[in-house]
Amino acid sequence: MSPAIIVVPCYNEEKRLEILQFRKHVARHPEHSFLFVNDGSSDRTALILDDLHAADPDHFEVLHLSHNQGKAEAVRQGMQQALQSGVEYAGFWDADLATPLESIPDFVAQLEQMPERSMVLGARVKLLGRQIERKQLRHYLGRIFATSASTVLRLPIYDTQCGAKLFRVTRENQSLFATRFLTNWIFDVELLARSRQLEQFFGCPKLEDTVYELPLTSWRDVAGSKVKPHDFFKAFFELCTIYWRYLRPSLKSPFTQLPAQVETQSKRKAA
């Protein structure tokens, strides 16, 4: 199986970080590695991560940010480093392991089996035979938001906010993380909006053809989550920001400049 690196943003995760699970995973899957981004934690998170790196530097890297910058920026900086590390796939995963690490090979398998896909997004779909344990209020608020995000993006997506995502290492995907996000709570939606702009301005393949949603076999709400119900209302304001900056019909300029050779390749594929 191809190598993959997973970015794990951490902010004051001393009591929730399951170090043993990460060690067990790399023992079973030595082709996988993890990049932990310490987002200016004020507890013992930095020490725990440094000890983990010292014990196994081949599988565990640590990026320390000087001060707390929020999950969006922690993920962005981690993904910038991961996408330039020479692996085939790079993604990000929530530190609380709400999505079990055992799911990573399933994400990798989807990209290996479907070369036309460039990203795999976890989807928390409660189906028979699957263990999706989510608080009822958060589930219903999440469905309302997901429907709104789907409408804004013009994309039939079920779950934008699951904290498990994997990307094929391409110049297009590298460009998605090139500049700071305008949002913090829903930067996942902003990533997709940026991909929409790559279609519009550079002729890159459509999201419908390159994004795959993978229904998770297991997911659970973990105590101590930093996301509260009222944050869903903040998310709607950020959704308006995304629409105005990336998706309104009168928009004249993209969020970034794609490298010339990628622009040429993308237009050739579109043709």
Low-confidence stretches: 261-271
In round numbers, the mean pLDDT is: 91
The termini sit apart by: 32 Å
User: Helix coverage percent of residues?
Assistant: 40-55%
**Class based on secondary structure composition and strand pairing:** alpha/beta
Order of helices and strands: EHEHEHEHEEHEHHHEEHH
Morphology call: globular
Largest sheet, described in full?
7 strands, mixed
Cα-atom radius of gyration: 18 Å
Q: How many beta-strand segments?
A: 9
Percent strand: 15-25%
Please tally the helical runs, counting DSSP H or I stretches of 4 or more residues: 10
Trace the largest sheet across and list its strands: 3-2-1-4-7-5-8
Domain Glycosyltransferase 2-like: 6-168
Keywords: Glycosyltransferase, Transferase
InterPro entries: Glyco_trans_2-like, Nucleotide-diphossugar_trans
EC number: 2.4.1.-
Can you describe what's shown?
The chain has 271 residues and is an alpha/beta fold. It has 2 domains: 1-97, Spore Coat Polysaccharide Biosynthesis Protein SpsA, Chain A (Alpha-Beta Complex), CATH 3.90.550.10; 125-162 and 171-271, no CATH class. It is built from 10 helices and 9 strands. The protein has helices spanning 19-28, 45-55, 71-83, 104-113, 136-153, 171-176, 187-202, 207-210, 231-247, 260-270, and strands at residues 4-10, 32-39, 60-65, 89-93, 119-123, 131-133, 164-168, 211-215, 218-220. A 7-stranded mixed sheet has the order 3-2-1-4-7-5-8, with helices on both faces. Strand 1 (4-10), helix 1 and strand 2 form a beta-alpha-beta unit. Helix 5 (136-153) packs parallel to helix 9 (231-247) and helix 7 (187-202) packs parallel to helix 9 (231-247). The chain starts with a strand and ends with a helix. The model is unreliable at 261-271 (pLDDT under 50).
